[in-house]
Design brief:
heterodimer, A: 353 residues, alpha/beta, D-Maltodextrin-Binding Protein, domain 2, 2 domains, 9-stranded mixed β-sheet, 17 helices, globular, B: 429 residues, mainly alpha, MetI-like fold, extended
């Protein structure tokens, strides 16, 4: 009896393994990985795609932009994902990695923009700040206020110390941790924008790149900037509980929580749909996805998925992605991109400088 | 002499009060500890229930939808692909506009359309595909309302705020009132939540996909880990010689039980996916990884259970001429079974709540189709909770808590089973 039981288990395990291996050799479902910022948008398209076509609904993993690129560039074949989402452009190093692993033909699709909002609770006073002051308040090292072109450790603890026009309140900003793409984008767009408002620092960008990046992108670690976790909902809830604090999170969360938080004006511009779309709001980033051309013929549905994503009903001004908080591209770029995608045009080679 | 005796009695008498007081204090501390943990538990359960209960009801809106060919954009004899693609949202919009003919401005129209869920069109699509004869008819259907309407009716949008700061606008409130007075709004039990997989519309999102994913994953875990762990425990406890090697194995098993679960995920990625080429995101890989994680737990508890079987049972069986194998399988193992089963179920419960190792093998994913086999892409309950908690729409707040309630229910059931099995097989000497 014992022997029989053991052989039954062995047989079961065997079946499981072979079935699994078979499933792998013929995948009929699109596999997507990548950015957690693009995830809420890509999932809407995937769901609709699954409903209106006969294809299986694509599987979307939220791995982060960098993690997605790594999986994507690991190679061709059914065991590797077909598409990766990214909240930034592919880096030259990633492109090279792709090329080295046989992923030579890649279609790049720019899908829209995402704004990053600075906001506080609705019952607090509206906050207006320039990028320069934001940089001075949040950077680890700031230009010496005495004018000698050196960096000192950030001495400011209240907003008024940064700029007398700002409220005399303690600096307290809740934002994402360094692992987050939102944090990267915030450092690149807001912090660097503010730090380049000092001419000599901007010049540093040419002469000493690494020092420029280190001083512009590093956020202070003395507790005034609070790492509040990857979950933007949590930041919104914390702002509601603490009217003295400001928070940094994605625009779609602002859009959904307009009864709890109000957006601060940055460089006199309020983050709205329109101001992000026309580029006047300074802190917004492009969203992309990348497709393996070699997979288009192999995995059923990729061409149709691309068509759905680049249709006016999805990414247009009135499309359902705009309803979810994605900022659409302008119409000309949309048409151009849609045509390129339909023709499966390869992206230009990226070269490291 | 007598003085000394008196002092001893006095000492005892004087201390007895103190000793009683000490005991009383200790019992009080214990009571406080229990009360504190109970109150934390009560707090947790009440907040989750309070937040999650609204998710079990869903508001529906009754609409007379005309499924005319022109709006749907289908021809006389539409095939299934055409019926899938047809413009169902257009028919819903038309039906709303007939109800409120005064709405003319574009922004107002957009606000009006938001009363009905985006999932409403899929509901119509399902009905028409089931019965293509419906094309051309006017049907009266109950469709789920949009996320904002749900939030408003359930009180999570504060109507006293100025209109600009509210997602649900004054005109939408007016329309809703008209619909309510016409009995076109109804609250019902949210069947969708138990019948569907994940969705990006909170009112269409269901827990079934994650629940099935969890069941499939745990099934694989149980099938793999239980026999291996029991065999390992029986060998180590009953047959293995006590030497340096078995000591080394024992130390390693105890160590494995304390290894952070993400490490098993990395191992699973390297071995099962990259080397054996098993599919990503599949319960079979999840089950393999989780069985690695639960093996040490089950081995340790099984060994403890085997150890607690009195040696006299073994001696008696051996004395009557039973072989060592017969002793183990006829006497020791059945007597140890309650303990082994308890350990197994605790291990399974641990596996049920695990997310970290699943991240590495791709089970943290958006999966709409409900998995039916161990090789289908799937996600599990805790992952679903984690994902819903991260989405911007307000409707997902209640869904998150409701999913936690389902997970807790599952856990309670597993633990109840453990208690039942223990009671059933328990033997006292």
């Amino acid at each position: 009896m014992l022997n029989m039981r053991i052989s039954v288990y062995a047989a079961l395990a065997g079946i499981v393994f072979t079935a699994a291996a078979n499933a792998q050799s013929a995948r009929d479902q699109i596999s997507i990985v990548g950015s957690s910022t693009v995830y809420p948008f890509a999932t809407v398209v995937a769901e609709r795609f699954g409903q209106v076509t006969g294809f299986k609904t694509p599987k979307i993993e939220s791995t982060g932009s960098g993690g997605g690129m790594k999986l994507f560039c690991n190679g061709l074949g059914v065991s590797h994902p077909d598409i990766t989402n990214s909240s930034r452009r592919m880096k030259a190093s990633e492109y090279e990695n792709c090329q080295n692993n046989g992923v030579t033909e890649i279609i790049e699709v720019l899908i829209g923009y995402d704004g990053i909002a600075l906001a506080n609770a609705v019952d607090a006073d509206l906050f207006e700040i320039s990028l320069k002051d934001l940089y001075l308040a949040l950077a680890k090292d700031v230009p010496n206020p005495d004018g000698s072109e050196t960096f000192i450790e950030n001495p400011y603890t209240t907003w008024a110390q940064v700029n007398a026009d700002l409220p005399d309140a303690k600096i307290e900003v809740l934002g994402p941790p360094p692992t987050s793409g939102t944090r990267d984008a915030f450092a690149e767009l807001a912090m660097e924008g503010g730090c380049n408002s000092f001419d000599w620092v901007k010049a540093l960008g040419k002469s000493d790149k690494s020092l420029h990046k280190a001083s512009c992108h590093t956020i202070r670690e003395d507790g005034l900037y609070v790492e509040a976790g990857e979950n933007d909902n949590l930041i919104v809830q914390k702002l509601e509980a603490n009217p003295n604090a400001l928070g940094i999170f994605g625009f779609s969360f602002l859009d959904q929580n307009s009864d709890i938080v109000q957006a601060s004006y940055i460089n006199d511009v309020e983050p709205t749909f329109e101001s992000i779309a026309d580029g006047s709001y300074p802190v917004s980033r492009p969203l992309y996805f990348y497709v393996k051309k070699a997979h288009v013929e192999v995995i059923p549905g990729i061409a149709e998925y691309l068509e759905e994503f680049t249709s006016e009903g999805a990414w247009g001004d009135e499309g359902y992605l705009a309803d979810k908080g994605m900022i659409p591209l302008n119409e000309d770029i949309r048409q151009q991109t849609a045509a390129d995608v339909a023709a499966l045009k390869n992206m230009d080679a990226l070269k490291s400088e | 002499m007598s003085t000394e005796e008196r002092t001893i009695t006095q000492v005892v008498e004087a201390s007895i009060k103190r000793r009683y007081a000490r005991e009383k204090r200790f019992r009080l501390y214990g009571l406080i500890a229990i009360l504190a943990s109970l109150s934390f538990l009560a707090m947790l359960i009440t907040t989750i229930t309070y937040r999650g209960l609204p998710a079990f009801t869903q508001t529906f809106i009754k609409l007379d939808v005309t499924l005319d060919q022109q709006t749907l954009g289908v021809n006389d004899q539409p095939d299934i692909a055409e019926l899938r693609k047809a413009n169902y949202s257009g028919t819903i919009k038309n039906s709303l506009l007939t109800l409120f003919p005064d709405v003319k401005k574009r922004n107002d129209k957009k606000a009006l359309y938001k009363l009905v869920s985006k999932g409403g069109q899929y509901e119509l699509q399902r009905l028409v595909i089931e019965d293509p004869e419906l094309v051309g008819d006017t049907i009266s259907v109950w469709l789920p309302v949009g996320d904002d309407v749900n939030s408003y009716l359930k009180g999570s949008i504060d109507a006293s705020l100025p209109e600009k700061k509210r997602r649900f606008k004054d005109n939408q409130i007016e329309w809703l009132k008209t619909l309510e007075s016409n009995d076109q709004i109804a609250q019902r039990f949210n069947k969708t939540f138990f019948e569907r997989g994940d969705s990006r519309e909170p009112e269409m999102a269901g827990i079934k996909g994650a629940l099935f994913g969890s069941v499939l994953t745990l099934m694989v875990t149980l099938i793999l880990s239980f026999p291996i762990a029991v065999a390992a425990a029986v060998y180590l406890e009953e047959f293995a010689p006590k030497n340096r090697w078995t000591d080394l194995i024992e130390v390693n098993i105890n160590n494995l039980a304390a290894v952070p679960s993400i490490v098993f995920g990395l191992l699973g990625l390297a071995v099962f996916i990259n080397f054996f080429h098993l599919p990503r995101s599949a319960p079979v890989v999840g089950g393999l990884v989780l069985s690695l994680m639960t093996l040490p737990t089950i081995i340790i508890s099984s060994r403890a259970a085997l150890k607690s079987v009195p040696p006299s049972i073994r001696d008696a069986a051996l004395g009557l001429g039973a072989s060592r194998l017969q002793v183990v399988f006829h006497h020791v193992l059945p007597l140890a079974m309650p303990g082994i089963l308890t350990g197994t179920i605790i291990g399974m419960a641990q596996a049920l709540g695990e997310t970290a190792p699943l991240l590495m093998i791709g089970m943290v994913a958006f999966i709409v189709d409900v998995p039916t086999a161990v090789t289908d892409p799937a996600t599990v309950l805790p992952v679903q909770i984690f994902q819903w908690a991260d989405l911007p729409e307000k409707g997902f707040v209640e869904k998150t808590s409701a999913a936690i309630m389902v997970l807790l229910g599952f856990l309670v059931m597993m633990n109840a089973l453990a208690v039942y099995l223990r009671k059933k097989f328990e033997r006292k000497w």
